[in-house]
Amino acid sequence: MHNKEHDRMMTELSRLIGNQENLTQADLEKIVNQFNSGKTVPKAQLTPQQQAEDLVYEAYELFPNKVEEALKKIEKALKLNPDCIEAYECLANNAPDLEMHLGYLRKGIEAGMKIFGGKYLEKNRGHFWGLTETRPFMRCLQQLANAFLLTNNIDEAVSILEMLLDMNPNDNQGIRYQLLPALLELGEDDKYKKYDKLFNDENSTFLLFNRALFAFKTKGKCLASDNKLKAAIEANKYVAKKLLSKSQLRTIADSYSWGDENEAKYYVVMAKRVWQKTDGALEWLTSETSKTQIKRK
Question: 96-134 pLDDT, tens per residue?
């Protein structure tokens, strides 16, 4: 399911729940059944903010084929709610150039800080993602961090990524996959260990390759680092080749599965630079990859 469809469903469900508190399991089941049968809050009862949200969802359906119509809906949404983060996120996602993309992200973040900063942040710190209304703000922050990473502004990116993990330690956005390579690149060993420890039970391709590189950076080539790299290579056979390739990745897929080539592309986009910057890392990777291939034969 497309993310926007999911967001819209969650928005409709939260509207049906409204401000009701102390709901029982039976109450929740009744609301979900109403939602599943197609019940929504009548348009006449929607607030200006909610009307603006719906206009943005409609605009998404029009991009990129009917840009003029889509922009009119966004304009109308911002008249209803000048702090409509969803509108700025939509404009950023469909911006014709990087400068406009960043400008709209900053506007969305500015609106988000106004709405979700201060007391709201203090009250809800730790479970931001569970509050549907905060998600456009968090996505704008993540996209800005992405832009900083791509333009080598690592410190700025790390500052945003740490803030996002503080808001949502469960990390539904996959912030750790961007943050940990960035910390390795900055040489922030203590911070790297702190955040990696939060996900100690996870043995994804992303974290296995990061851990192997960290072991090599801190201990050099040894049995421990070799074993970590071997485990990483076994988790995804495509990563090493793409890390060692001199060509740059131009595109990545919208999704991936564990161990597949698309997953390797995601990791390499985020971590290739730190592998290249680490003295001896690529030579070590070449050597260990060759050993693994020989053993397979």
Answer: 999 999 999 999 999 999 999 999 999 999 999 988 899
DSSP 7-61: HHHHHHHHHHHTT--S--HHHHHHHHHHHHTT----GGG--HHHHHHHHHHHHHH
**SS3 helix, strand, coil % of the chain, rounded to 5?**
75, 0, 25
pTM of the model: 0.87
Is there a contact between 253 and 230 (Cβ–Cβ < 8 Å)?
Answer: no
Q: Render pLDDT for 129-186 as a digit per residue (tens, 0 to 9).
A: 988 899 999 999 999 999 999 899 999 999 999 999 999 999 999 999 999 999 999 9
Domain 46-173 has CATH 1.25.40.10: yes
Domain edges within the chain:
46-173, 200-297
Tell me what pLDDT residue 1 has: 35
Distance from the first to the final alpha carbon of the chain: 40
